């Protein structure tokens, strides 16, 4: 009887060890997949209002964001504003400096987008404040620019 109990205990421990080792391997695979897809973002974290970006910039620092706002393009004043009224009143703290990707610059006629509400996608940098540090941050390497109707 003791012999059967000992054999059963050894078999049970063996199966337990195998299960733990296999679980560890699948966890390693899962971790590598998570790293591979770390740039995939939940839509609600990617498509945000400018208000959230202005109020909690640290939450979005160095993250890709999609925002809608009023675009002004002029010398030393390229920015997207929370509202047209903010642009009219020159409330630059309610705006983000914009910096377009080289690809977008090459193929875009920016006159079509100036002084209009637009949707843009780019990476947010809360530490870069644009011309003379007047803005709430920078949306850099912008890869999408469309008129918002």
Name some characteristics of this structure:
5 strands, OB fold (Dihydrolipoamide Acetyltransferase, E2P), 5-stranded mixed β-barrel, single chain, 149 residues, 2 domains, alpha+beta
Describe this structure in words.
This protein has 149 residues and is α+β, with helices and mostly antiparallel strands. The protein has two domains: 1-38; 43-147, Beta Barrel (OB fold (Dihydrolipoamide Acetyltransferase, E2P)), CATH 2.40.50.140. It is built from six helices and five strands, in the order ααααββαβαββ. It has helices at residues 2-36, 43-46, 50-55, 57-60, 84-88, 102-107; strands at 64-72, 79-81, 95-100, 116-125, 138-147. A five-stranded mixed beta barrel has the order 1-2-3-5-4. Strand 1 (64-72) and strand 2 form a beta hairpin. The model is unreliable at 32-38 (pLDDT under 50). This is Lipoprotein. It comes from Chryseobacterium profundimaris. Keywords: Signal. Residues 1-21 form the signal peptide.
Dominant shape: elongated
Mind summarizing the main beta sheet? 5 strands, mixed, barrel
Strand order of the largest sheet: 1-2-3-5-4
Under CATH, the homologous superfamily of the largest domain reads Nucleic acid-binding proteins
The name of the CATH topology of the largest domain is OB fold (Dihydrolipoamide Acetyltransferase, E2P)
Quaternary class: single chain
Helix fraction bin: 40-55%
Residue-averaged pLDDT? 82
* Rg, Cα atoms, Å: 26 Å
Supply the CATH architecture of the largest domain.
Beta Barrel
Unreliable residue stretches: 32-38
**How many strand elements?**
5
Element string (H = helix, E = strand): HHHHEEHEHEE
Beta fraction: 25-35%
Keywords: Signal
Protein name: Lipoprotein
Signal peptide: 1-21
């Amino acid at each position: 009887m003791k012999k059967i109990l000992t054999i059963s205990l050894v078999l049970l421990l063996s199966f337990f060890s195998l299960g733990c080792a296999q679980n560890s391997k699948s966890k390693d695979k899962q971790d590598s997949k998570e790293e591979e897809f770390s740039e995939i973002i939940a839509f609600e974290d990617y498509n945000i209002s400018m208000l959230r970006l202005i109020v909690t910039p640290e939450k979005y620092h160095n993250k890709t964001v999609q925002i809608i706002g009023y675009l002004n393009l002029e010398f030393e004043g390229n920015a997207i504003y929370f509202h047209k009224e903010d642009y009219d009143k020159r409330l630059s703290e309610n705006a983000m400096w914009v910096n377009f990707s080289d690809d977008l610059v090459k193929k875009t006629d920016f006159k079509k987008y100036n002084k209009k509400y637009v949707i843009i996608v780019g990476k947010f940098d809360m530490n870069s404040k644009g011309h003379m540090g007047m803005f709430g941050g920078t949306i850099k390497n912008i890869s999408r620019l469309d008129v918002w109707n």
